[in-house]
């Protein structure tokens, strides 16, 4: 059991709420300084903070079973106590850590049309990052033949991806299955870019600065390999 739920730490909680709502996400949790939104696939959380940042985070059926299976697969994982209760802490070979929390999860069918949460991990070693996602139970769905991009799907909703880069980092992104101009009509400040390598993508203003990327589902697989099950 695995669902993607990155956490956006931000001083602009209301502005992010407006952006997510415009994109069609549904608010499913609301507490002081904490909000969670559901996309058509996957969740994304907002947490009040003075400094903006993004943290990978997941939801699982049992943190104990998740930690054990992840460790058995080859990636360090232990159960830890947090302010929000027990969580499984995963440690990647480069020292990056992220948490998985228990939640009631149901199987999620692949999104035929709609928006999927897809945080991106930028790393100098995409193969190592891909192994971490594989070890936690995500299934590889598409990869570039050069190995610079490897995308995964979580059984209970959401996507994650590893992207080769000169420096490590994370980025909030989404994938849209359908005509991406539909989303542009909801967010007039957004712009569509066409890239010969990645197809069309929508760039939505990020309340903390920069842009949120929304990639259109790839039809053209030139230079890529798609898992037959995705």
Automatic annotation (TrEMBL):
Alphabetized InterPro entries for the sequence: Glyas_Bleomycin-R_OHBP_Dase (IPR029068)
Protein name: VOC domain-containing protein
Organism the protein comes from: Arthrobacter subterraneus
């Amino acid at each position: 059991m695995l669902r993607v739920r990155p956490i956006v730490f931000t001083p602009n909680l209301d502005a992010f709420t407006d952006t997510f709502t415009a994109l069609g996400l549904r608010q499913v949790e609301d507490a002081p300084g904490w909000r969670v939104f559901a996309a058509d696939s996957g969740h994304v959380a907002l947490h009040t903070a003075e400094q903006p940042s993004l943290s990978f985070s997941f939801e699982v059926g049992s943190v104990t079973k998740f930690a054990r299976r992840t460790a058995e697969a080859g990636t360090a994982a232990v159960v830890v106590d947090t302010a929000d209760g027990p969580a499984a802490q995963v440690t990647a070979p480069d020292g990056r850590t992220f948490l998985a929390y228990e939640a009631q999860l149901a199987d999620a069918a692949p999104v035929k049309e709609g928006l999927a949460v897809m945080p991106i991990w930028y790393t100098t070693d995409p193969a190592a990052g891909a192994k971490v996602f594989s070890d936690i139970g995500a299934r590889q769905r598409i990869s570039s033949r050069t190995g610079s991009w490897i995308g995964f799907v979580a059984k209970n909703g959401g996507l994650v991806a590893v992207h080769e880069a000169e420096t490590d980092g994370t980025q909030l992104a989404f994938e849209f299955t359908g005509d991406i101009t539909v989303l542009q009509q909801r967010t007039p400040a957004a712009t569509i870019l066409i890239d010969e390598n990645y197809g069309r993508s929508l760039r939505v203003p990020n309340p903390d600065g920069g842009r949120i990327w929304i990639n259109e589902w790839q039809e053209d697989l030139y230079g890529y390999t798609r898992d037959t099950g995705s």
